[in-house]
Amino acid sequence: MMIRTARLEDLPILLDFEQKLIEAERPMDVTLKQTEKISYYSIEDYIKAVHTEVVVAEIDGEIVGSGYGQIRDRKEFFQQKQLGYIGFMYVKEEHRGKGVSQAVIQYLYDWFTTKGLEEIRLTVYDKNPRAIRAYEKAGFEKHLIEMRMNLKE
Fold it and tell me: pLDDT digits over 36-53, tens only?
């Protein structure tokens, strides 16, 4: 397995990964538009940005996974001025359980370290226990709980 920085020519595959990720998460989030195509990320802009590192995982020359790390500014009351944020974690179904997400996360850890960051965060749906286990295996721990209420129900 090889983890590398994504290139613009990877964009069609990455856009497909994004749609598969959205398809998997729609049942977990009633607030997402259910009938029309949506997009979470501006992947092309992320590939070009200096504050974001989009990566792909390859096995035998095939792109099988993705993720991004992004440097984000923090509010004044936090100890560190910036943090690392991980998103767009996707692994093709037939390659899950092979350590792909762990390798992507490790690559992003190393990238954040070269940028002098001390903290990494991510968000994950509570209804996605497999992803939660993968993140916990990588060293993440639960920190905040976001709650919602629908006033029309």
Answer: 899 999 999 999 999 999
